[in-house]
Specification:
Alpha-Beta Plaits; 2 domains; four-stranded antiparallel beta sheet
Amino acid sequence: MNRTKIFKAALALAVALGLFGAGLLTGKNTFHQPTSVIHVVAVQWTPESTPEQQKAALDAVKNMAAEVPGIKNIWIKSTRVQPRDYNAAFAIEFENKEAAEAYAKHPAHDAWMKIYEPIHKESRSLQITN
């Protein structure tokens, strides 16, 4: 075997190993553990509430998020809700624990509660952080 063929074979092997290694690195799942606080609420609407009222209550979460300092993100479209007799869910991400605590005392939260409180029968909420 001549040197050119050996060099080409070695180069091809090095490229193949490099591509394999790159594939392993990019295929590895990465995740983060942020220090933000996620507030998740599952809602059971009252039987008397209308779809328009329910939508208005969830849309009002957007208005509240625009006014309350420390809210980073919101989610208002639920894809699965448990317990099964609950109808909707939403989530709010706060920058930190202090922002999560301050939100419940903010006037925008009070305004939202005036829309939400009359039409929700029951709710379950969780706050999660790292």
